[in-house]
Design brief:
Blueprint: H1 2-28, E1 38-44, E2 48-49, E3 54-55, E4 59-66, H2 70-101, H3 108-123, H4 128-191, H5 196-210, E5 215-219, E6 225-229, E7 233-237, E8 240-241, E9 244-248, E10 256-262, E11 265-268, H6 277-312, E12 333-336, E13 347-352, E14 363-367, E15 372-376, E16 381-385, E17 393-397, E18 400-405, E19 413-417, E20 442-445, E21 455-456, E22 460-461, H7 463-467, E23 474-479, E24 486-488, E25 497-499, E26 512-513, E27 519-522, E28 525-530, E29 538-543, H8 552-559, H9 573-613, H10 617-651
Antiparallel strand pairs: 1-4, 2-3, 5-6, 6-7, 7-8, 9-10, 10-11, 12-19, 13-18, 14-15, 14-19, 15-16, 17-18, 20-29, 21-28, 22-28, 23-24, 23-29, 24-26, 25-27, 27-28
Length: 653
C-alpha cells in the first residue's frame, strides 16, 4: 500500500515540476517575438484492479500543449503582407509626390518662367536683352526637366536595390523554413511529439517572410509546411527550397526584375505576379506609378518640344533664315529582347509624330512568324503591320511612328516606350539669340491708291508653307465682276479654301468669291479680308525680308502656353503636367489611407492571435503558486508514504 502511495506522490511531484518548468519557460519568453504559450496537459495514470475495485495510480503528462490558432495566424500573415506592401509603396511614391508638387523644385515655375520669357520677348520687339532672357529661361526649363527625370532615375535605382535585397531575404527565409521543416519532422518521427519551440521559430520565420512578399502556407506531411508565393509558385516544400533571383530585364538591362529559378533556367515574373510585402509594394509602385510618371513627364517634354519646334520653323530669325528646331525631341526607347534569335536583323525605331494622339501606354512589337504585330500593353490591342517591306515599313499608331525594317524569327519581341526618355533628352538646340525665329515669313500690304475700305490681315502660315511654298510675292486683285465680286491673282494650280466669318466653308469654284470677313487659305498661307474693296484694289503678300522687329511668330510661340495639345486637343502643357501632379498626389493619399487601415487591421489581428497564444504574466504568476502548492502536496504524500513504510518495518522487528 505504501509503495503505491509513494508512486502516486512521485507522479504528482514530477507533474508539478513539469508545470513549474513550463510556466517558468512561458515567463522568461514572454517578450520573444513569435513565442506561443505552452501548458502542461495532465492525464490520469492507468488504474490498478485490486479485486475489490479499481484504484488510481497517480497522474502522468500527456503532452506539452502549444496554444496557436492557424486561422488567426493566417490573418496576421495576410495583414502583415498588406501593411508591409503599402508601407513600401508609400515610402517610394511620397518622394515623387513631394518633388512634383514642390513650388520651387517642380516643373510649373520653370514652365511659367519660360513662357513669360517668350511673351516678354514679343512685347519688347525681340530686342537682344529679351532674346537672351528668353534663351536663358529655355535653358532653365531644360535643366528642370532633366533634374526631375534624374531624380526619378535615382528612385528607380532605389527600387532595383529594394528588389535585390528582398529577393536575398526571401531566399534566406525559405532556406531556414526548409531546415526547420526537416528538424521538426525528425523530432516528430522519433519522439511522436512536435518540438514546440521550433514550431514557434518556424512560424515567426513565415511571418517575417510575409514582410517581404505575400506567402501562402499549407500544412504538409510530417508536421512540415508548404509555402508558395505569387500565383502558386512553390517556395518551400518539405525540406526542399525553390529560389528567386534578381535578374535584369530581357528588354532593359538597367531594370531589375524578379525571376523564378527552376533548375538552370530563370523565368522572369511579371511585376503583378508577386503581391504584398516590401517586394510586392516596390514592384507595384514601379509599374503603377514610377513608369507612368516618368512617361507622363516625358510626354509633356516631347509635346512642348514638338509643338514649339513646329511653330518656330514657321518663323524667320534675325538673319532672315527659316527657324530650326528649338528643342530636341527624344526618340522612343526601344528594347530588344536578349532572347531573340541571333539570325534576326530586325531594326525598330519609334518617334512621336502627333502628341495629341498619345496614349499612356507602352508597346510590344512581336513577330508571330508571319506578321509583325504592334501590341498596346495598356489594353492588349494588337495591330498587324501588313503589308510589310523588309527595306522599311512605317506604321502610325496612337501618335507614334513605328519604323520596322529587316527580318525576324518567330516569337522575336521588342519593347517600345514612346515618351519615357522625353524629359532626360530635352535640350535647347538654339544657342545664338540671333537664331530665334521671332518674325513671320510673310508680310502683307495694300497700296494707298486703293479706293475701297478693305483691309488684309497680317497673314499666317502653316506646315504646308514649308512643304511646298508658293512663289512670292502674290498680288490679289478685287473685281466687282458684274455684282459677283471675286478675288484674282492666286497662284495657278493651287487650291484656295474660303471660310466665312461664321465658320462656313464655301464650295470650290474657278472664281474665288470675295466675302467680307472671310479667311483665304492657299499654299500654307492664310489671310483674312475685311471691309469693302473698290474695283481694281490690290493686296500684296510677300516675303518678310528684313523683318527684324517683327514679333508675330514669337507671339504665336507664346500662345502655345494655352494651346490644347494633348488628349486629342483637350489638355494644355500646364494642365497635362497638373494632371500628372494630381494623379500622383491622389495615389499617394490613397496608399497612405490604405496603409493606415492595414495597420489597424494588423493590430487587431495580432491582438486576436495574442488572446490565444500570448503569455499573460498575471496568469503565469498564478500558475506558479498553483504548481508550487501541488509540488508541496505531492511531497507531503511521499512523506506520509515513507512514514507508513517505516511503521510497517518497525512491526516486523
Amino acid at each position: 500500500m505504501s509503495g503505491n502511495l509513494l508512486s502516486i506522490g512521485k507522479s504528482g511531484l514530477f507533474a508539478a515540476q513539469a508545470g513549474l518548468s513550463t510556466t517558468g519557460h512561458n515567463i522568461t519568453n514572454a517578450g520573444v517575438a513569435g513565442y506561443n504559450r505552452q501548458v502542461v496537459v495532465q492525464a490520469t495514470a492507468p488504474m490498478l484492479d485490486t479485486g475489490v475495485g479499481f484504484q488510481g495510480t497517480g497522474t502522468q503528462i500527456s503532452q506539452i500543449k502549444r496554444y496557436s490558432d492557424e486561422f488567426l495566424n493566417s490573418q496576421v500573415r495576410n495583414a502583415q503582407a498588406s501593411k508591409s506592401g503599402l508601407d513600401s509603396y508609400y515610402s517610394q511614391i511620397s518622394q515623387i509626390d513631394n518633388m512634383l508638387a514642390d513650388q520651387t523644385a517642380g516643373l510649373s515655375p520653370s514652365l511659367q518662367g519660360f513662357f513669360k520669357g517668350v511673351q516678354d520677348m514679343a512685347a519688347n520687339r525681340a530686342s537682344v536683352p529679351s532674346r537672351q532672357s528668353m534663351l536663358s529661361s529655355a535653358d532653365t526649363l531644360a535643366t528642370r526637366f532633366q533634374a526631375l527625370d534624374a531624380r526619378l532615375g535615382e528612385i528607380r535605382e532605389g527600387v532595383n536595390s529594394t528588389i535585390e535585397s528582398s529577393v536575398t531575404l526571401i531566399n534566406s527565409y525559405a532556406q531556414q523554413i526548409a531546415d526547420l521543416n526537416d528538424k521538426i519532422g525528425s523530432f516528430a518521427a522519433a519522439q511522436q511529439h512536435a518540438p514546440n519551440d521550433l514550431l514557434d521559430k518556424r512560424d515567426q520565420l513565415v511571418m517575417e517572410l510575409n514582410t517581404q512578399v505575400k506567402a501562402n502556407v499549407m500544412p504538409g506531411d510530417n508536421n512540415s509546411l508548404t509555402v508558395s508565393i505569387g500565383s502558386g509558385q512553390p517556395l518551400v516544400v518539405g525540406a526542399r527550397t525553390f529560389q528567386l533571383a534578381a535578374t535584369k530585364s530581357p528588354f532593359d538591362q538597367t531594370r531589375v526584375e524578379v525571376g523564378y529559378v527552376t533548375g538552370s533556367k530563370v523565368t522572369v515574373l511579371a511585376d503583378n505576379a508577386l503581391s504584398g510585402g516590401t517586394l510586392g509594394g516596390a514592384l507595384d509602385f514601379r509599374s503603377r506609378t514610377l513608369d507612368p510618371a516618368q512617361s507622363a513627364l516625358g510626354k509633356v517634354a516631347i509635346g512642348l518640344a514638338f509643338e514649339f519646334n513646329a511653330q518656330h520653323k514657321l518663323g524667320l530669325d534675325q538673319n532672315g533664315l527659316a527657324g530650326k528646331d528649338f528643342f530636341s525631341v527624344a526618340p522612343a526607347f526601344v528594347g530588344k529582347n536578349i532572347n531573340n534569335a541571333l539570325s534576326s536583323t530586325t531594326d525598330i525605331k519609334a518617334v512621336v509624330s502627333d502628341p495629341g494622339k498619345l496614349v499612356d501606354s507602352d508597346y510590344k512589337i512581336a513577330f508571330d512568324g508571319t506578321n509583325y504585330n504592334v501590341i498596346r500593353l495598356s489594353d492588349n490591342t494588337s495591330t498587324a503591320v501588313t503589308p510589310y517591306d523588309a527595306a522599311g515599313t512605317t506604321v502610325s499608331i496612337d501618335g507614334v511612328d513605328f519604323r520596322i525594317s529587316g527580318l525576324a524569327s518567330k516569337d522575336d519581341e521588342f519593347l517600345v516606350r514612346p515618351t519615357i526618355g522625353g524629359a532626360a533628352n530635352f535640350n535647347v538646340l538654339v544657342k545664338d539669340v540671333a537664331s530665334i525665329a521671332a518674325a513671320a515669313p510673310i508680310a502683307t500690304s495694300a497700296p494707298v491708291s486703293n479706293t475701297g475700305t478693305a483691309k488684309i490681315s497680317e497673314g499666317r502660315v502653316d506646315q504646308r508653307f514649308l512643304d511646298n511654298p508658293p512663289s512670292l510675292p502674290v498680288t490679289l486683285e478685287f473685281r466687282s465682276n458684274g455684282g459677283s465680286p471675286i478675288l484674282t491673282g492666286f497662284p495657278a494650280g493651287v487650291d484656295v479654301k474660303v471660310v466665312t466669318s461664321d465658320g462656313k466653308e464655301l464650295p470650290p469654284s474657278a472664281d474665288v468669291k470675295f466675302v467680307a470677313g472671310a479667311t483665304y487659305s492657299f499654299g500654307g498661307i492664310s489671310v483674312t479680308m475685311t471691309g469693302a474693296p473698290g474695283n481694281g484694289d490690290t493686296f500684296t503678300i510677300a516675303g518678310n525680308a528684313g523683318g527684324v522687329g517683327d514679333t508675330r511668330n514669337i507671339g504665336l510661340l507664346g500662345d502655345l502656353q494655352t494651346k490644347n495639345i494633348f488628349n486629342n486637343g483637350s489638355a494644355t502643357i500646364q494642365s497635362s503636367y497638373a494632371q500628372l501632379v494630381s494623379t500622383v498626389g491622389n495615389k499617394t493619399r490613397e496608399v497612405q489611407v490604405n496603409g493606415d487601415a492595414a495597420g489597424a487591421l494588423l493590430t487587431q489581428a495580432k491582438a486576436s492571435a495574442a488572446d490565444v497564444s500570448g503569455v499573460n504574466l498575471d496568469e503565469e504568476a498564478t500558475n506558479l503558486i498553483k504548481y508550487q502548492q501541488a509540488y508541496q502536496a505531492a511531497g507531503k504524500v511521499m512523506q506520509i508514504a515513507g512514514t507508513i513504510f517505516d511503521t510497517l518495518l518497525s512491526i516486523g522487528r
